[in-house]
Structures are given as structure tokens and as C-alpha cells.
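SEVERITY: medium
COMPONENT: batch folding queue
REPORTER: lab tech (J.R.)

DESCRIPTION
The queue accepted two submissions in a row. Attaching both inputs and their returned C-alpha cells so the on-call engineer can compare them side by side.

ATTACHMENT 1
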Amino acid sequence: MQAPLTRRLGRSGIEVSAVGMGCWAIGGPYFSGETPIGWGDVDDAESIRAIQRALDLGATFFDTADVYGTGHSERILAQALAGRRDQVVIATKFGNTFDEATRQNTGPNVAPDYIRQACEASLKRLNTDYIDLYQFHINAYDPERGAEVRDTLETLVQAGKIRAYGWSTDFPDRVRVFAQGEHCATIQHQNNVLDDNAEVLALCEEFNLASINRGPLAMGLLTGKYAAGSSLPVNDVRGVRSPDWMKYFKDGKPNPEWLKQLETIREILTSGGRTLAQGALAWLWARSPMTIPIPGFKTVAQVEENCGAMRFGPLTADQMQAIDAALGR
């Protein structure tokens, strides 16, 4: 059996599997007011089996956040990784307050004291004494004030609470602020074959920061599971009450414009025996040596498919050119 593909978390030098496991969905339902920001109902036992299967298949990088399921995702991850902490790299996020009893996101707080409290709370839920990668979760936070957040994270590194940090942001000016920090290692941003963020990716390459790709499968669109008539549950972030930023799904159904683009490249992505999802992950690996996609999962089968992409590796230069031509870019 060949060794799994690996990548590095930027200038931290921490090595991880080339595909990470995105743990948003396994947090279960949670809300901002009436708006769902989770991925619907979950089976915790299946989530735990899926995490353990991912480990067996060579995945070593698990990305969660304190707010996912208002603490539930972190707790499930801790249960699944019990006794295997030394085999994995754990990334979590901070910046949102929440009420576990009502499963509500109650808004941002990035005061230095709160960041330290949030870190301690995540350490407890994750049942660990250090976090490998601690990420700022407020995408559009004021870049001029971002330096204070960055400096607070440097103190957490010095205290041994975290090994490295990053910002989950799609904005180049925010990237530049965090890149000045000695222990900044990553930027997490939206990126997939249909929706490329070339500017942020270029900055990751310039500053030697890993590009952690959220939405690598376009919120499930690139799995091929959803057709024009598909509809999502009301408690799903992609359902009829979805937040304003949800572009891949509209009114609880796949956005037809994105589905149309997908059909133009389906054949290229699925060539050579790959599934559609595996082709989408392979595109990201070919896009840059800095990329680490973190597809979400709820089931063992999804984990097996995502980890299986590592057997094939990146797309070829010819395939990359053919996709650009098909998409007219």
C-alpha cells in the first residue's frame, strides 16, 4: 500500500495528510436566530466510526470549530480520537460565542480575555492539553484591529496552549495582517474547481502559509449527489432558510447556474477512475502545493471516498488546462 499524500501547514512545518476532515457537519443542527448554520441531523455513533475510519485510511488532519453544533463537534472529535491524540493534528476555531442549551450562535467576541477563555474551553472539550492549529473564525473582521487578535495568539503559542494559528478569511487584506505573525501558518478560505480564490492563494504561496480549502466540494454540489430537483432539510444550512452567503444552493435546491458549470467539467474530473468528488479534490492539489482541502462528512462512506482521492493524487497539467478551457477562464 502506498503512503498517503502529505502536505505541510505552511511555515509551522507540521506535516498533515493532503486531505483533511472537515468536522462542521458532525456538530449537528445549530442556528443564528431562525437561520440554520449546521448541516441537519447527525448520528454521533456514525460520526465516531467515520473519524476512526479516516485515521485508518491515513487522514491525520481534523478541522473543527468551537461553534460547530455549539461545542458538539469538538466533543465528538475528542471521543473518536481517545487514545490516538499523538497520531493526529487538530485544528479548531474561535471568535463566536454560543449557547449550548439553545444551540444558538450568540455573536462574535474577540477580546483578548475572551480568546484565552475560548481556547481553554476548546482544550477541555477536545480533551487535550494543546491545539495544533487555532484559527480566527470571523471572516470579515476589521483588518486594522486584526493585529491585536494576532498578538493574542502569539501569547497562546508562548504559553504552549497552541502550536500555530491562522485566519479563516476570504479577504487578501486580512491575510497580510496575520502573515506578519511569526507563528501564523495557515489561511482557511473558500476554494474549489468552480469557485477559485486566486488572490488569497497567491498570498499563501508568497508568505509560505498553507491554504486550507473550505467548501472544496461546493457544499456537496461537487459530489454529484444533488440534481436540479433535490431539496434540503429545513434545519440544513443549504435549506430554504439558508443564510445570505449561501450561493451554491438557493431556496433549498442546488443553484442551476453552478450545476450547469459542473456538467461542463464532469467528464474531466471523473476520468481515470475517480469519482466526481475525488476529481474535485485532485484539482485543488494540482492548483498549488500549498492547498489542503477539508471536505465535510457525516458517514463512513463519505470518508472512504474522500480519503480514496489520495490514491490518485493531483490532476495533470493537461487536465487543469482542459478544465479552464471548459469553464472559459
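ATTACHMENT 2
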Amino acid sequence: MEEQVFAMPRIGEKAPEFKAVTTQGDINFPADYAGKWVILFSHPADFTPVCTSEFMTFAYMEDQFKELNCQLVGLSVDGLYSHIAWLRTIKEKIEFRGMKNIEVTFPLIEDITMNVARKYGMMMPGESNTKAVRAVFFIDPKGIIRTIIYYPLSLGRNFDELKRVLQGLQTADAFGIATPADWRPGDDVIISPAGSCGTAKDRMDGKEEGLDCKDWFFCTKKLPKEKVMDAILKK
């Protein structure tokens, strides 16, 4: 039987749909998470050291992501019983950077058929034919893919960056702005270039309140951290 080939999903497209068995029961993705942000991420295999460090960190930070209305969903091409045994071992035996007795309560998808991994382009030529790379998909409350990050098998993820990406996407949506390099909540934000010559001249003449324009195309504005956090935490 000929293997089904899927095109890799792209930013701005609907997240591919699937049903799956997980360590937290059956899921219908992304419909079950409508109204929430989702970080869908893959790891190469259970009982591997880099993946163990990542799952412990995700579990340790889970409440921080929940505060941001974000659900974590993991995946590997291992079976359900392997997942359960691995997560139990993590809780009972593994200590990493002061983290111990860590219980993973977010869903971990069984994908022994590699159906989901193929739908999301997680199987990378040149890496492995049987292991998913460290892919991360940020999916918004409408089920749209907003950011994709891929890491090779040998490189553990930067979790501060994953949280920063989520906060940046939410801030851009809430305020209609863009975020500059290395932005974090409380830093100045980017205001999109003016759409007309008149408005551009107003900006350069300082007639648009609160803008700091270095040229017509580069204007920033202060956005206090408290205002950002109130918006993205929906206080």
C-alpha cells in the first residue's frame, strides 16, 4: 500500500485535524481546545535524556502556560504503555535542575502509526525515519497555526523563548502591534509603518502622541508590562 504523503502545514493555515489516544484519554484535535492557545510539540522518543529534561521543564512550567490560556499537548511515535511507564519513571526517579517528583498531567499522544507526525511534518529527512524531530506548533484559539519552530534531535528547547513567543503573539493580537528583537513584556513595541504620506509626515513631525519615530518606517511606542499582562492574562 502506497504511503500517504502530507504537505507540511504553514503559518496562517488551519491546524491539521486528527483524533488520537493520549495519556489523558482520547482527544479530537484541535476542536477540543477551541478558545485556547495550544502548544503542540513532538519529541523523538520516550526514555531518552534530552526529552526527559524537556518534559520535566514543560510540566514544571505548565501552570505558567495555563495562566496564558494555553494547553500543552505532547507527541512521540511511541505507544501508550511506553508513555505511561516513562512518565512514571520521571516522577519516581528523575531529578533535574532542582526539579523532582514531577508529574506530567498534560496529554502525551500515542502515534505509533506516525499519522500525526506526518501530518505535521515532524518526520525530517536526514534526521531519522522513525523518530519525530523536536517540533513546536503554536496554535491560536481559532485553530490557526501562528508559529512553527523545529529543533534537531540533539538540541533541547529553550523554554523561556517558548513562553516569550506565546506572550508576543498574544500581545500583538491584543494591541495590533509588532514586537522587536528580543522583546519581552514591558519593552517598547513596534508600530506598523504609516499607510499614507500625510500620516507619515504627522509621525515625523511628532503629531502622533506617544510615538518615538527614528524615520517614517521605524516607530516605537511604550507599552507598560502591567497593561500587557492584564490583557494577555485577561484580568
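NOTES FROM REPORTER
Residues 211 and 221 are 5 Å apart (CA to CA).
No errors were logged for either attachment.
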